Amino acid sequence: MSESLEELQAFHWMMDMLQTVDVGIVVLDREFRVKVWNGFMESHSGMLPSDVRDKTLFTLFPDITESWFAQKARPVFELKTRAFMTWEQRPYLFKFPNYRPITGNEQYMYQNITLSPLVSANGRVENISMMIYDVTDIAAGKKQLEAIQVAQSEALERQQDMF
Q: With bands split at pLDDT 50, 70 and 90, how would you rate the model's confidence at 153?
């Protein structure tokens, strides 16, 4: 098999993996226009890649504050470092419905987000990737644990007040 055919096949299965991985992957340029929108994002947003390509994130999702997001992304572009957003800081960036409503009580998908620089051949960062992780089960579990701890603490206080 020729080397170029092997490279093409490797590229094909990598693209297939990008589309089917259970993590949202979005690539944004410096103006925050969408360049890549994978299957996870399509499935949870209901928007096709062809519908979102070259549109700004803020046009597609007006709930995202442009100045806040730009401030988060600035070090990724300028310093070539990663930036993180956790569900504890902000429950979600994308207001996707919880797709496990029977097993969970949460209305929306809790998300952890990682912004990573994509360094081009000239050494500049013209695009960043955004990886969106569904952490709804983790968030729901932590919230339940905290509620149990509060209830136990209140019960202990009531018990101590009785004596």
A: confident
